[in-house]
């Protein structure tokens, strides 16, 4: 049979003129689309092998090969989602016929739906696939140039200790505990909810995130304060494996209706769960933590990500600004002498 359904996805199964059996996913649950994919693929093999033409590859084939070659990457599931959305525009398109203008129009649609930053993620995927098809797979002679949108740098969103206290009073107990832990460690939501007792040493006041769990793919060492250690001790016995639970079961999602309602009652607007991490970093910088220490504590690979918080520590940097004054006037020059010099300028 030419079409076979496996786990709701249609697969093609046919034999080429040379006798080679082809079994390949169509990456769709729609039988009509699967049949179209099958017919194009079968016709392509016949044209190439019988007539000796150069193979003509489609976007669908490029997408499938991309997913096959990148399934080991963290971005694999994100790519699946993006490619599913892109199919409405590029399904069945011959790679060499995909123009720059067509890609721009796709970017405009996504930009209107969400933002320039999100549109750039989709355009980057299209560009990467076309470049690979050109430079590595040699399926096309030239890949169209894809220009990214200019992204607006968003300000770091953080809240004060007073706002946090109000929020904590509004949260249910299990969310309150997780929120305090997030503010105390700066860990990302997934790392907190998936934290196991094997990753915690209460005696040494430390926890760790394994490299395969971290966004930067490097182990993260987490120092725990005495307050956080006592907080974790209240969770002992709730679950044999996971640290944070609700009704003796691991917490699957913390960004719930209860969390959003608590924010509303606390009068905190435009605040996401991830902004707890921004709050943690902002508090540390404002209280003198050097940026290179913050980078290590937060598990950031790029110093650029950490520089977002540099503007929050002007008071801590003022001692460096005084260096020039000490060179010009020394450390004990009367104030009126400095004013006298300034009047001569």
Structural commentary:
- The protein has helices spanning 31-51, 59-69, 76-90, 100-113, 116-135, 161-170, 173-185, 189-193, 226-233, 257-266, 275-286, 291-298, 303-306, 314-329, 335-343; strands at residues 3-6, 9-15, 21-25, 200-201, 206-209, 220-223, 245-246, 249-250.
- The protein is mainly α and 345 residues long.
- The protein folds into 2 domains: 3-135, no CATH class; 161-312, Intergrase catalytic core (hpI Integrase, Chain A, Orthogonal Bundle), CATH 1.10.443.
- The strands form 3 sheets. A 3-stranded antiparallel sheet has the order 1-2-3, covered by helices on one side.
- α6 packs across α10 (257-266).
- The chain is globular, with a radius of gyration of 28 Å.
- The N and C termini lie far apart (91 Å).
- This is Site-specific integrase.
- Residues 154-322 form the Tyr recombinase domain.
- Belongs to the 'phage' integrase family.
- Keywords: DNA integration, DNA recombination, DNA-binding.
Brief account:
By secondary structure, the chain is mostly helical. It has helices at residues 31-51, 59-69, 76-90, 100-113, 116-135, 161-170, 173-185, 189-193, 226-233, 257-266, 275-286, 291-298, 303-306, 314-329, 335-343, and strands at residues 3-6, 9-15, 21-25, 200-201, 206-209, 220-223, 245-246, 249-250.
Give the amount of beta strand, in percent: 5-15%
What is the tally of beta strands?
Answer: 8
Architecture per CATH nomenclature, i.e. the level-2 architecture of the largest domain: Orthogonal Bundle
Instruction: Write out the strand line-up for the largest beta sheet, numbering strands in chain order.
Output: 1-2-3
CATH class assignment of the largest domain: Mainly Alpha
Rounded mean pLDDT score: 85
As residue ranges, the low-confidence spans are none
Major sheet characteristics: 3 strands, antiparallel
CATH fold assignment of the largest domain? hpI Integrase, Chain A
> Number of DSSP helices?
15
Q: Please give the oligomerization state of what you see.
A: single chain
For the record, the count of structural domains works out to 2
Distance between the termini: 91 Å
Domain Tyr recombinase: 154-322
Protein name: Site-specific integrase
Pfam families: Phage_integrase
Family: Belongs to the 'phage' integrase family.
């Amino acid at each position: 049979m030419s079409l076979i359904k496996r786990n709701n996805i249609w697969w093609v199964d046919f034999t080429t003129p040379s006798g080679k059996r082809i079994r390949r996913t169509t990456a769709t649950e729609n039988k009509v689309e699967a049949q179209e994919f099958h017919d194009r693929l079968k016709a392509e093999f016949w044209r190439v092998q019988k007539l000796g033409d150069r193979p003509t590859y489609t976007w669908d084939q490029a997408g499938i090969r991309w997913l096959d070659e990148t399934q080991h990457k963290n971005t694999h599931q994100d790519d699946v989602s993006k490619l599913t959305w892109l199919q409405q525009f590029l399904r069945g398109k011959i790679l060499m016929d995909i123009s720059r203008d067509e890609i721009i129009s796709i970017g405009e649609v996504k930009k209107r739906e969400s933002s320039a930053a999100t549109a750039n993620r989709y355009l980057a995927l299209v560009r990467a696939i076309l470049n690979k098809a050109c430079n590595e797979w040699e399926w096309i002679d030239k890949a169209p140039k894809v220009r990214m949108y200019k992204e607006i740098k968003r300000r770091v969103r953080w809240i004060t200790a007073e706002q946090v206290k109000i929020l904590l009073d509004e949260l249910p107990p299990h969310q309150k505990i997780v929120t305090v832990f997030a503010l105390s460690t700066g860990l990302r939501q997934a790392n907190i909810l998936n934290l196991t007792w094997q990753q915690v040493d209460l005696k040494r006041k430390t926890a760790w995130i394994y490299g395969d769990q971290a966004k930067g793919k490097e182990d993260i060492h987490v120092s725990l304060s005495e307050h956080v250690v006592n907080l974790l001790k209240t969770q002992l016995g709730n679950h044999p494996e996971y640290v944070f639970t609700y009704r003796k079961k691991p917490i699957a999602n913390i960004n719930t209706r209860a969390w959003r309602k608590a924010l509303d009652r606390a009068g905190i607007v435009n605040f996401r769960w991830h902004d707890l991490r921004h709050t943690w970093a902002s508090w540390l910088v404002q209280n003198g933590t050097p940026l290179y220490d913050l980078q290590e504590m937060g598990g950031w690979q790029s110093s650029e990500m950490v520089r977002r918080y540099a503007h929050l520590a002007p008071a801590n940097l003022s001692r460096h600004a005084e260096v020039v004054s000490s060179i010009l006037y020394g450390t004990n020059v009367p104030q009126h002498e400095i004013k006298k010099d300034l009047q001569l300028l």
